[in-house]
Amino acid sequence: MSDISASKIQNWLAEKRKPIKSKDDKIREGASIRTSNFYLQAFKQFCRWLVADNRMPENPIAYLQGQNPNSDIRHQRRALNFEEIQKLLCETKTASVFQSMNGFERYMLYALALATGFRAAELASLLWQGLELDSDSPTITISAGYTKNRKEATLPLRNDIAELFRKWQTEKNFNSKNKVFNNFNKNKAAKMLRYDLDRAGIEYQDQTGRFADFHSLRHSFITNIGKTGASIKEHQSLARHSKADLTLGVYTHLSISDERRAIEKMPSFIEPQIQHNQAKSAKTGTDNLPLNTLNHVSKESIPELTPDLTPSAYFDNNRPTMKETDWQTDGAISKSLNSEELGTEKTHLATGGNNRRRWDSNPRITVLQTVALGRLATPPDGI
After folding, report:
1. Domains and CATH numbers, the chain
2. pLDDT band at 76, cuts 50/70/90?
3. Are 333 and 325 in contact (CB under 8 A)?
4. How far is CA 262 from the centre of its chain?
5. In this predicted model, which residue has the larger pLDDT, 75 or 380?
6. With 90 as the cut, is the pLDDT of residue 255 above it?
C-alpha cells in the first residue's frame, strides 16, 4: 500500500494509452481515454475501501480526475433513420438462420430493442413473465440482476409491439418461465446485426465514420423518443439515465433534416409576414373577435376587476355564467346569471360566505389552468 501514489498511477495510465507495436511491426492503438478513465475509477474505488477499512489514513489519489472521453472516441455510434429501420426489419423477417436464430426471431429481437432501448444483455435475460401483454397498459420488466445499474427496470410497451409478442407467444405456446430469446447470444449480437445490415444494404459504418452496431438500436430508440416532443424528464426516464446530459449529448442524434424541420417552425420575420401577423393580432378574446368589436360592447356588461372578483363576463352575453357554488364539495350547480344580471354587482359571486377568492366560479377556466394553480378539482357533470 505504501507504493500507491498519484504520480505512479498517472504514469501507468499514460503508458496504457500509448500506441503498441506488434510483432509483425503493425502499430496498434493503445487504450482509449474512456478505458483509461475506467481504470482510474477502479483504482479510486479500491483506495476508498482501504480508507474505510482503516488500512490507510487517507486516499492518496482522491484528487486525480479523468480526461474528457469525447476527445478520443474510437467507436462512435449512430442512430438508424426511419427508412433504415423499416428496411432492416423487412429484410430480416424472412431471412435464414444465423447465429442459431432464424429470421423471425431476429426480427422480433430488433423490434423489441428499437421499441424499448434495452441493451443486448438485458434482452438476453428477458423472460416471458417479464412481459405484461394482456393489460390495457402493457409493460416490459427486466430483473435487477441484469440491468446496468442493478435496478429493476420497467418500461411501458407500445400496443402494437405488445400485440406482436402476444400472437407469437400464443402460436408457439411459450412457457412464462422461459426466455423470450432463448437462442440469443449477447456476445454475438454485433456480428449478427452486421450480417442483417449487409443483407438489407445498410452501411455498417457511414461516411462520417460512425458505426451501426447492436447498441445503436438503443441510440435509435432514444433519438426517436426525442423527436416525439417528449419533455427532458420523460426523455431521460425512458432512457434510464441518471443524468439528462448523457441522454441528450451522447444518445440523441439529429440529422440535417431534423434541424431543418426545427428551423421551419420558427416564425418568419420578413416584411410581408410581419404585416400578416399584425393583421392577425388585431383580433382578441377567446371568441377571436376583431378588436373594433370591443368598442361596440357595452361597458356596463363588463364588471370592474377587483382583487376579490374573478372575471366572469365576456363578450357573448348570451352564454350563462355560474353563480356562487361549491361544486368541489357536493357537485351542485346553482342557476346561471342571465344577460341582464351581468352588469349588476354581485359581491357574493367572488367572495361567497367565507370571504375567499372564488377562482373556480369562472366557467371559462381550463383544466390546464387548474393544474397550474395546483388546485385540480373534479367539475360537476356537464361542465
Report:
1. 6-71 (no CATH), 82-260 (1.10.443.10), 298-373 (no CATH)
2. confident
3. yes
4. 18
5. 75
6. no
